[in-house]
Design brief:
Elements: E1 7-10, E2 13-16, H1 17-39, H2 47-69, H3 71-74, H4 91-109, H5 115-136, E3 155-156, E4 163-164, H6 167-188, H7 196-217, H8 225-246, H9 252-257
Antiparallel strand pairs: 1-2, 3-4
Helix pairs in contact: 1-5, 2-4, 5-6, 5-7, 6-7, 7-8
Length: 269
C-alpha cells in the first residue's frame, strides 16, 4: 500500500484517514445525485434533509448489523456499541435501514413523483459514490485487505500480515464499471420504461457484492460473511422482481409520443 497513514493525531484527537475519504465520497455523491434529480425534473428542495436522514439511518443500521453478526465481541461490553471510531459497520445493514427510511420520506416529500423515476435518478449516483468510497475509504483503514496472496497485485495493509488482495480497489473498479454501464443503459432506454436502471443496479451490485464476499473476503469478514452473501442475493432477486414489474411499462413520455387514433368526432377531411 502507499505511505498514506491510516490515522493521524491533532493534539489529543485521533482522525482516521478512511473517514475523510468516506466524507469526500458522500459529498461528491450528494452533489451528483442532486444534479441528476434536477435533470430528471424532480424537486430537490427537501433533498438535503433526505440525505441527512439516509446517512443517520444508514450509520445506525450498519452499526446494529455489525453488532448482531459479531455479538461474541460486543456481548457484555455495551461501551463498544457506540465506538464506531474503532470500526465495525456492515454495509447491508446500513442499506436496509436507509432503504426503509428513504421509501417513507420519498412518499412524504415527493408524493407526486413516481418512485421508479426517483430511484432511476438516484441509483447511478449512489453507485458512483460507492465506487469512490471504496477507493478512498477501506483502502486506508486497518485490516482493509482480503485474503493472503503472493501475486504481484497484492498490497500490505495495516493490521494484516503479508500481502493481501486489494479488495477495496477491486470493488471500486467493479462499481465504477457498473456506474458506466448504468449510464449506457439509461441512454439506450431514454424515455422508455422507468425502473429498469434501478433494477439493473440492484441485480448486478447485489450479485457482485455476494461474489466478492465469497471469493475475496470469506471468513475474514468482520460483518458476517454468510449474511453478506445472502443479503447480496436477496437484493439481486428484488432487482429481478423490479425488472419484471417495470420492463413492459411505458412512461408518460411514450404515451404522449404515441399516435392518437381519430374518433368519430374528428372533423371531416
Amino acid at each position: 500500500m502507499s505511505g498514506v497513514p491510516t490515522s493521524f493525531h491533532l493534539g489529543p484527537l485521533i482522525f482516521h484517514t478512511y473517514g475523510f475519504g468516506l466524507a469526500i465520497a458522500v459529498y461528491t455523491a450528494y452533489l451528483y445525485a442532486r444534479r441528476r434529480l434536477i435533470r430528471a425534473g424532480v424537486s430537490v428542495d427537501p433533498f438535503a434533509r433526505l440525505t441527512i436522514w439516509l446517512l443517520l439511518s444508514g450509520l445506525a443500521g450498519a452499526r446494529l448489523a455489525n453488532i448482531a453478526t459479531n455479538w461474541h465481541y460486543y456481548r457484555g461490553h455495551p461501551g463498544r456499541w457506540l465506538a464506531i471510531w474503532q470500526g465495525g459497520l456492515a454495509s447491508f445493514g446500513g442499506i436496509a435501514a436507509a432503504l426503509v427510511v428513504g421509501l417513507i420520506l420519498q412518499r412524504r416529500w415527493w408524493p407526486g413523483t413516481p418512485l421508479a423515476q426517483f430511484t432511476d435518478a438516484l441509483v447511478p449516483a449512489l453507485i458512483a459514490g460507492w465506487a469512490l468510497g471504496r477507493v478512498l475509504g477501506p483502502q486506508f483503514m486497518v485490516s482493509g485487505g482480503g485474503h493472503l496472496t503472493h501475486q504481484w497485485f497484492g498490497l500490505h495493509y495495516a493490521g494484516q500480515a503479508g500481502k493481501r488482495v486489494p479488495v477495496p480497489l477491486i470493488q471500486g473498479a467493479e462499481d465504477g464499471l457498473l456506474w458506466l454501464a448504468l449510464l449506457g443503459l439509461e441512454h439506450f432506454r431514454r424515455g422508455r420504461a422507468l425502473g429498469v436502471v434501478t433494477a439493473a443496479g440492484m441485480i448486478v451490485w447485489g450479485l457482485v457484492r455476494a461474489l466478492d464476499e465469497r471469493l475475496l473476503l470469506g471468513q475474514e469478514s468482520h460483518s458476517g460473511s454468510i449474511g453478506v452473501q445472502i443479503a447480496g442475493v436477496v437484493l439481486a432477486v428484488a432487482g429481478v422482481v423490479t425488472l419484471i414489474v417495470h420492463w413492459p411499462a411505458r412512461t408518460t413520455h411514450d404515451r404522449d409520443a404515441s399516435p392518437k387514433v381519430q374518433g368519430s368526432s374528428a372533423p371531416p377531411t
